[in-house]
């Protein structure tokens, strides 16, 4: 029975092919494929086009649509102008042509290469063709990289979008000229910075004036590729201001080549060592003087050094804003005895428009966590002491109740069988593979659900010598008690203690009231311990 072919006409043209001047435009490919299909009596199901897409990977919209139709059995023939249109990754192309498509009973024809998957002779040259196509893609990529590097070294701007405050020259897309609409805003940002305003305060002032942030401005005026509205609504933030204040482009200099591709097959970028950056000075008009720029850099360096000092934030990655869930971030403090405060990271970046501050003094949070942890460790020790006592008492009762030799032998046999298991648990615990929390749970489960197994765990190797030789389960419990006692009554916190005992801390928004002429602050702190207990702490202290 003759197969009825439903053909997919696949066309692709990359930007690299256009730069190389390859005579394979989409129009040309469409004409060649349609003529071939008609001459050979193939029914054309659909055309699939990827214009401007690299052949070094298969993350292409048109290609994926074709694969979807193939999986739905709508297509059983793929026709391309040549194998390079299908792909320039020889491993990926070979995977499709030699494995995936044959399993799906899909025929592939590459017209100019004389390739037809129905003909066995075609496969003899397939690997060579695919390797050649990948080598071609690599060569084109290298040539483009060399050409772009030469452009950068000559002072040409090669970015997709001009930096905020500039625009591309209408007669030369590689030259930056002043944007009369946004340049005054950039100048104002630098002016405020010279007056001592920090990036967060500058962002708040711009947002209060309802001035579009760079991303929103570009999205609204200068690109067809629309960006998520939620991103644009975020407005100015401290990070955006910081990037502007340290960017030498506003001195009239171009600093390019800061990143490079991991591979010509991948879009992922990695940083380049600053010694390899391409810097060309005085390529366009400056928006800030060198004196003001250096003054701002010095002010920022001084502020950073003063803030950091020898301070180490123990709650980094552990403390979160109760309202929005963002991490609490360190901010400066005017108080001598509290060199640092914590505030909501969203507030720090975008101001009150995004979230309230949730300020808390670092020393206050430190004291709360230390006190709460000591309290919980005392309760934890009491709970475990009680548990160990109950286990020992039940052990005595169980053994005293065993009067017949046959029962004793049975329990001793089961004890030996489970001794290896208990030893393994203890070994895992001592190596850190098993947490004390998990260990406690397992013992509790044995106590409640597995009476028979608990009998064996609580038997001693010799029933007549109970006080001298505790069973394996009791030894484990006593080890945990020793561990807890070692940490009990902490005098100071350390990163190790925080990691061992604190899962997360949520900081509520504080409120103020006047009591006996003094301004006091009330604030709720929520501590989640690693041993699955949540504690709410209220703090009240004088605020000046």
UniProtKB/TrEMBL annotation:
Pfam families: Recombinase, Resolvase, Zn_ribbon_recom. Residues 163-306 form the Recombinase domain. This is Recombinase family protein. GO terms for molecular function: DNA binding; DNA strand exchange activity. Residues 6-155 form the Resolvase/invertase-type recombinase catalytic domain. PANTHER family: DNA RECOMBINASE-RELATED, DNA-INVERTASE FROM LAMBDOID PROPHAGE.
């Amino acid at each position: 029975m003759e197969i009825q072919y439903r053909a997919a006409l696949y066309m692709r043209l990359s930007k690299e092919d256009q730069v190389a001047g390859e005579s394979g435009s989409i129009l040309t490919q469409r004409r060649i494929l349609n003529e071939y299909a008609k001459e050979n009596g193939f029914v054309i199901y659909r055309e699939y086009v990827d214009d401007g897409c690299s052949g070094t990977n298969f993350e292409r919209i048109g290609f994926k649509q074709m694969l979807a139709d193939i999986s739905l059995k709508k297509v059983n023939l793929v026709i391309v102008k040549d194998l390079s249109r299908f792909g320039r990754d020889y491993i990926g192309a070979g995977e499709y042509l030699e494995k995936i498509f044959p399993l799906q009973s899909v025929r592939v024809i590459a017209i100019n290469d004389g390739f037809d998957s129905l003909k066995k002779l075609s496969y003899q040259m397939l690997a060579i063709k695919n390797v050649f196509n990948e080598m071609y893609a690599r060569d084109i990529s290298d040539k483009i990289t060399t050409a772009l590097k030469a452009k950068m070294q000559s002072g040409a701007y090669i970015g997709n979008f001009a930096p905020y405050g500039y625009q591309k020259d209408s007669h030369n897309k590689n030259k930056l000229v002043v944007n009369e609409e946004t340049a005054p805003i950039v100048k104002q940002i630098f002016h405020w910075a010279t007056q001592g305003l920090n990036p967060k305060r500058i962002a708040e002032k711009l947002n209060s004036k309802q001035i579009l942030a760079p991303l929103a401005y570009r999205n609204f005026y200068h690109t067809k590729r629309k960006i998520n509205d939620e991103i644009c609504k975020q407005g100015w933030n401290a990070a955006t201001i910081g990037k502007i204040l340290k960017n030498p482009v506003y001195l009239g200099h171009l600093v390019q080549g800061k990143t490079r591709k991991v591979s010509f097959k991948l879009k992922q970028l990695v940083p380049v060592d600053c010694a390899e950056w391409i810097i060309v000075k005085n390529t366009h008009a400056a928006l800030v003087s060198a004196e003001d720029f250096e003054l701002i850099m010095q002010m920022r360096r001084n502020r950073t050094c003063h803030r950091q000092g020898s301070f180490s934030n123990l709650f980094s990655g552990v403390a979160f804003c109760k309202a929005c869930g963002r991490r609490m971030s360190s901010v400066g403090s005017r108080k001598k005895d509290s060199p640092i405060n914590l505030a909501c990271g969203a507030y720090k970046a975008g101001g009150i428009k995004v979230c309230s501050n949730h300020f808390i003094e670092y020393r206050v949070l430190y004291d709360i966590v230390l006190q709460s942890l000591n309290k919980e460790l005392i309760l934890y020790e009491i709970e475990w002491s009680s548990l160990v006592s109950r286990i020992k008492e039940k052990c005595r009762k169980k053994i005293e109740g065993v009067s017949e030799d046959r029962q004793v032998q049975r329990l001793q046999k089961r004890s030996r069988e489970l001794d290896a298991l208990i030893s393994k648990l203890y070994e895992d615990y001592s190596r850190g593979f098993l947490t004390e929390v998990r260990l406690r749970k397992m013992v509790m489960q044995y106590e409640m659900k597995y009476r028979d197994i608990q009998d064996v765990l609580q038997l001693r190797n010799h029933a007549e010598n109970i006080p001298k030789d505790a069973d394996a389960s009791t030894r484990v419990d006593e080890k945990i008690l020793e561990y807890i006692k070692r940490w009990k009554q902490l005098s100071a916190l350390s990163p190790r203690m925080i990691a061992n005992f604190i899962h997360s801390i949520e900081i509520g928004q504080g409120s103020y009231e006047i009591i006996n002429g003094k301004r006091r602050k009330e604030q709720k702190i929520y501590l989640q311990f690693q041993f699955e207990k949540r504690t709410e702490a209220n703090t009240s202290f004088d605020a000046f």
